[in-house]
Design goal:
Layout lengths: L1 E9 L4 H15 L1 E6 L3 E3 L10 E10 L3 H14 L14 E7 L4 E2 L4 E2 L8 H10 L12 H7 L6 E3 L2
Antiparallel strand pairs: 1-4, 1-5, 2-4, 3-4, 3-8, 6-7
Length: 160
């Protein structure tokens, strides 16, 4: 059984409903949800001229191999209406694997830990809420330490 740290987010439609539906589908198709963070709102990162995002971190206990997990998450995104037309553009749902245990993976489909996680407060704040002492296997620093060192200055607001 692997412990996968998944960041869910979206900025189109009823954002809270999309996060809830994604959580339900992840539990049905990927494994037990062991913990969840609060929901946070953040201005768009990267391509800024778009609605703000809601994000939530899910800790999932899964028997799926890492690449099979990623494939399943991509299918969930598609099922929920995700269209990949603009890189970093608006989306109904975005499902990212931040880490799986202490695995380090680099394949065409999946890079673990997520290669930009340490640069994004919207990922680190909910991650630090549920697993502040988890050690990043490449940087050998806790999630809490990565958050204090994060260069991102976007405001991240807890909404629930």
């Amino acid at each position: 059984m692997n412990k996968a740290y998944l960041l869910t987010g979206g900025n189109l439609g009823n954002r809270m409903d999309y996060l809830s539906k994604a959580q339900t589908l992840i539990e049905q198709l990927c494994g037990n949800i062991a913990a969840t963070s609060a929901v946070y709102e953040t201005a768009a990162w990267g391509l800024q001229e778009q609605p703000s995002f809601y994000n939530r971190l899910l800790v999932t206990e899964t028997n799926l191999a890492p690449e099979k997990l990623m494939e399943t998450l991509l299918l969930i995104e598609e099922q929920m209406g995700r269209k990949r037309s603009i890189k970093l553009g608006p989306r109904t749902i975005d499902l990212d694997v931040l880490m799986i245990d202490d695995l380090v993976i680099n394949t065409p489909l999946l890079t673990l830990p997520h290669p930009q996680m340490h640069n994004r407060r919207f990922a680190l704040i909910p991650f630090a809420e549920v697993a502040p002492n988890l050690v990043h296997p490449v940087f050998n620093k806790t999630i809490a330490t990565l958050l204090t060192e994060c260069p991102d200055t976007l405001d991240v607001h807890k909404i629930s």
